[in-house]
Amino acid sequence: MFVRLVNISLRGVTLLSKFFLIFLLARFLEPKDVALYGLMAATIGYSLFALGFDFYTYSTRELLATERKHWAGLLRDQGCFFGIVYLVVLPALSLIFIFGLLPLSMAPWFFILVVLEHLAQELNRLLVAMSRQLLASIVLFLRSGLWAALVVVIFWVSEDLRQLDLVFAGWSLGVAAACLLGASALFRLHGGSLKRNIDWSWIRKGIKVALPLLIATLAIRGVFTLDRYWVQAVANVDVLAAYVLFAGVANAVMSFLDAGVFVFLYPKLISAYHQADRTAFNNGFRQLFIQTLAVTITLSGLAAILIFPLLEWLNRPAYSNNLAVLYWLLLAIFLYAMSMVPHYGMYAMSSDRPIIVSHIMALVIFVILAYWLTGWSSQYGVPLALCGAFLGILIYKTIAYLKLKGRQHWLLAESLVST
C-alpha cells in the first residue's frame, strides 16, 4: 500500500503539472499558440503508435509468459524491430509538414520529441511488465511532470520567456532524462540470452499479432487526433483553443486511470488467466470495474466544479464562452473509460478481434457523426461525435466480453460457484 501510495502520488503530481501547464499556456499565450501546442501534442501522440507498431501488445504478453532470464534477448530482438520501423516511418512523417498540417518551423521539435517520447513510452511499459511500478512512475514524472512544473515556474516569473519554444525545449530535456533513467533498469536483466542469434521468427510472429492491433490503435487514436483537426477546419481559432484546453482537462481523467488503476490491475488479469486462477481473474475484473467507475465519476465531478475559478483566473472569453464543450468531453471520456473495463478483460484472455473491430467501428462512427453534427454546430459537433463513438464501443465491447467469458469454461464455472 505504501509503494502504491507513493506511485499514485508521483503520477498525481505529474498530472497536476501537465494540468497547470496547459492552463498557464492559456493564461499567458494567445489562443493561436495554445491551438498550435494542442495540434503538435496530438500529432506527436498519434505518431508514437506508428513508431511503436503496437508491438508491445505482443511482447508484453510474451515477457509475462517467459522466464525473466530470457527477457534480455527478447528485448534485444524488439529493439532490432524498432530500428527497422524507424527507417520506414520517420521519413514518412515528413508528410505532416509537406501537406501543411503543422508549420515547417515545428519540424525539428517534432522529430526530436517523437523519437524520445517513443523510447520513454516503451521503457515505461517494460517497467510495468517488470512490476517496477514505482520506477515507472518516476520515469513518467521526468517524462511528463517535472519539466512541465519547471516551465510553469519560468512562465510565471519571466515574461520574456513565455514562448512555445521554451515549452518544447523543456519537454525534450524531460523526456531525455526519463529515457536515461528507464534504460538503467535494463542493466539488471540477466544477459545470458543475448548470446543467441536474433529470433526473426519471433519478430515475424509479433508483426502478425501486432499489425491488426496497430490498425485498431491507429483508428481509436485517430479519433483523439482527428477531432482537433476537425475543429480547426470547421470553427475559429478561439473554439479550437478552448477545445484543446478542455480536452486536456478531460484527458487528465483518463491519464489518472492509466496511472492509478489500469497499470496495477491489467497485468494481474493476464497472469490470472494464464495461470487459470478463476478467483483471481474474477476479483481482478470486479476491482477494475469498481475502481474505474469511482475514479472517473469523482475526477469528472471535480473537473466540472473547479473549472469555474480557473476560467475566472484565465479571464479570456475564448474559453469561458465555450464552457459547455468541457461537459460533453467529460461525458465522452467517461464512456471511453468504462469501455476499457471489458477491453482489458478481453486483452487478458488474448482475444484481440473484438478490440480491433470496436476501434475501427469507433473511427467510422466518429467520422459519420462529426460530418453530420458539425453541419448543425461547429462548436459542439465534434464533442457530440466523440460521445456517440465511445458509446458505440462501450456497448460493443461489453457484449463481446460477456460472450467471450461465457466460452471460458473455467471462468463460467467460477461464476456459477460464486452465485
TrEMBL record:
The keyword Membrane applies. It is a multi-pass membrane protein. It is found in: Cell membrane. One of its GO terms (cellular component) is plasma membrane. The chain crosses the membrane at residues 12-29, 35-58, 79-102, 108-127, 134-156, 168-189, 209-231, 243-267, 288-311, 323-344, 356-374, 380-402. Its main location: membrane. Keywords: Cell membrane, Membrane, Transmembrane, Transmembrane helix. The keyword Plastid does not apply. InterPro entries: Poly_Biosynth_Transport (IPR050833). This is Oligosaccharide flippase family protein. It comes from Pistricoccus aurantiacus.
